[in-house]
Amino acid sequence: MSELAPIRVVVLGTGAMGEGIVRLVLSKSGLALVGVHARRAERVGRDVGEVLGLGEQLGLPVTGELGTLLASARPDVAIHATCSTIADAWPEIETLVGHGVAVVSIAEELAFPAARAPALAARLDALACERGVAVLGTGVNPGLVLDLLVIALSGACQRVESITATRVNDLSPYGPTVMRSQGVGLDPGEFERAVASGEVVGHIGFPESIAAIAAALGLAITRVEETRAPIVTTVPRRARFRRITPGQVAGCSHTAVGFDAHGRALVRLVHPQQIEPAAEGIVTRDELVIEGVPRIAFTGSPEIPGGVATIALAVNLIPHVLACRPGLRSAAEVPVPAALVGDARTALARLGGPRGG
Amino acid sequence: MSELAPIRVVVLGTGAMGEGIVRLVLSKSGLALVGVHARRAERVGRDVGEVLGLGEQLGLPVTGELGTLLASARPDVAIHATCSTIADAWPEIETLVGHGVAVVSIAEELAFPAARAPALAARLDALACERGVAVLGTGVNPGLVLDLLVIALSGACQRVESITATRVNDLSPYGPTVMRSQGVGLDPGEFERAVASGEVVGHIGFPESIAAIAAALGLAITRVEETRAPIVTTVPRRARFRRITPGQVAGCSHTAVGFDAHGRALVRLVHPQQIEPAAEGIVTRDELVIEGVPRIAFTGSPEIPGGVATIALAVNLIPHVLACRPGLRSAAEVPVPAALVGDARTALARLGGPRGG
To answer: Please, which pLDDT band fits residue A241 given cuts at 50, 70 and 90?
Structure first.
């Protein structure tokens, strides 16, 4: 990578996240969008500007052939926004790393892949080290609110007894898929069955966040317990695509607790997701509490918005993934994310310059 | 440094900070205290345990000869807690780096030395690079609350318009030196004269925090303006060493604003320091607000306590300073601080292992 040329970026994914990432990449100094990859065949071959509704042609066709794209576009870094699991992401990330391209991924499991896929994580780490590039997972949650911010605050602690981090958000703007995955509109009995069948999943990312905190602090967490309980509304509530009545489920209160070998709850993460929480006077927020010396409690309200912030993190971490040591990296192993206000090449130089290339 | 042997630590300074740091180092797995250096001649030669009131002898005498100490103790890292300015710290840090010892310093100016002492900062960076070790400044403020946490939160922003960070604390427990430096007990006229004469200094660290934020985000700040205004009490207030009556000064409201070349205020840092703020219903807190996309607002109340947290940060960052690339580093250039709950050697391995030695 030349120090003067812009950083060459490809984006994988043309959904809501991919679109936001493309728009943000285009707005930043020092970044050049050199390719967009889509899984959806009907988008391939059309201009990126048209597919993403940017209001102008970019002269850049969406491609479906990743290897061909990488060979011709020669990107420095890819932002990966196509899926949630490492298994699903594997072929794309393997191809990227194989071409010597650094990767920032918003796949939830990539935030701390060793939590649920240690074998794939080890393979990916070895491959990335061999090719001299880094792969970094990010996102608002997992990736920031319920893990990285907690870790950063713990840096001010002489001792840590336990951690409780809560994120209360509002699902009202989301579409039917999210409504289903959180059980919105079910009755409580249906909700329990839908949890058992795996149709209601709640939040994706608790094992990753707990493992990230445990690794960073050196907490000896040996077991994680997750519970998914229905949030039953007592008042009518409405969302963009759904109305519910008292007695129906407004969402999923998903909790994960990490225990040590003595059964002590060291980390408790709480993430109730529901439509229109304000209808029952519930304030959306991110609330981080460390019981220790000193006790630290921080609250942000409303919560950091998920989509907007995940897009921001993916782009803001481009300098970080290019500067950090090769391998599979997590958020607490690289310098703190920072808004990319100035030129991305200056930000990269501040972090020590490119390592991979 | 062997991977199995504990990390060898020396502490410079035997004041309140040095004492707390020594106690914390002694409590951590994987750290070995191998020396303590004091500037105060009357402490030299006495046992560290006795001088610091640890309740037991450590079999380790306080030393006043840094070079001799380093040659015999062969530390991997030093925690430097003797002063506030880089000029004052220079001989000690030059000696440490010259002996190939990594340094974590709580000197306020070391949080971002290029802000006020660019020439010394450049010399120190060159020396540290040459010797293959890192020098890292830290502390609760500057170093965490009004800079690193702001930077980390900005990572979730697509755009940043302006930043306002406020820290409201309580000086009541502090001694006569702090009372004087904040103007406690003066009348407003005396306060203005004491600001002009430099007797009332307010907070040390605003230029460092603003420069750290500007560097991390790439903000084009060209001018910093600081103001120190008296906080005149309307009710009686009392502190450990001082009582004041209505009309007297309870402390110093110190503000710094960073402007761009167009005169736009990009960063506003506010730090009123006073005795017994609760007497007028003022809640102590850390409040971080980023106006941008998204808007982010986080508040921690009470504020993260200064002394306890600065001691924690100094020790918790030992793995970070050993793992990071050589040179003069600031907080946003290394991975986020994390409480050192487990073994320090494991924490160091997580960050990639020792680079310096």
So the answer is: confident
C-alpha triplet B164, A111, A7: angle, nearest 5°: 70
Nearest CA in chain A to B337: A155
**Model confidence, pTM:** 0.97
Nearest to A156, CA basis, from B314, B321, B167: B314
For residue A156, give how far its alpha carbon lies from the nearest alpha carbon of chain B (Å).
5
Closest by Cβ to B342, choosing from A219, A294, A305: A219
Assigned token pair, A242 = 């759904």
Report how far Cα A296 is from the mean position of its chain's Cα atoms: 25
* Nearest residue to A169 (alpha-carbon basis) of A317, A310, A339: A310
**H helix or E strand, kind and range, residue B46:** none
Give the DSSP letter string of B181-240.
HHTTT--HHHHHHHHHHTS----S-HHHHHHHHHHHHT----EEEEEEEEEE-SS-EEET
Using the Cβ of B261 and the Cβ atoms of chain A, whether some distance falls under 8 Å is answered with no
Distance from C-alpha of B178 to C-alpha of A176, rounded to nearest angstrom: 59
Gap between the Cα atoms of A254 and A272, Å rounded: 6
Distance, CA of A12 to chain centre: 15
Helices and strands, number each (H, E), in chain B: 12, 14
Closest CA to B29 of B47, B4, B11: B4
Q: Give this complex's ipTM.
A: 0.97
- Residue A11 to residue A33: CA distance in whole angstroms: 8
Longest alpha-carbon distance in chain A: 61
Q: What's residue A3's pLDDT?
A: 56
Q: Do B155 and A286 touch (CB under 8 A)?
A: no
Distance CA B270, CA B150 (A): 13
Q: Does B243 touch chain A (CB under 8 A)?
A: no
